[in-house]
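Students often ask why we bother encoding 3D structure as a string. The short answer is that it lets us treat folding as translation between two languages. Here is a chain of 135 residues written in the first language.
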Amino acid sequence: MLRLKIISPEKTVLDAECKSVTMETSEGQITVFPSHAPIYTLVTAGEVVARTVDRGDISLAVGSGFANISQTGITLLANFGLLTDEIDEERARQAKERAEALIADRRGKQDEAMATMELQRSLLELKLSSRRRAN
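And here it is in the second language, the structure alphabet:
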């Protein structure tokens, strides 16, 4: 089994025993199984699917970060992490609109960069939330 720990600046998002973990990396999507070769990899914002031993498949939205993968576990440090069951669609929709308005306003590079990150996060949350509703 694999011990998966997903940690954001705010909290430990998930700590679970898994059969496999699928995530988006800078090199593309990977699935990690027990006894995986040890690597460090950049993680891109996207969905992580943890196939847990006792809770079934768990879907999470995670921001960019990096993962330390060993034969027995994964520690994923991300700038945000959220179980898809916890996504608030209305909050994500409002965040998307605010970010789009800031980008259109073009006040400064820092504001635009922050707005772009918020836009990416809200779009990811809305995508995963709509997928959850469809199932």
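Translate back mentally: The CA atoms of residues 60 and 83 lie 4 Å apart. Keep this in mind for the problem set.
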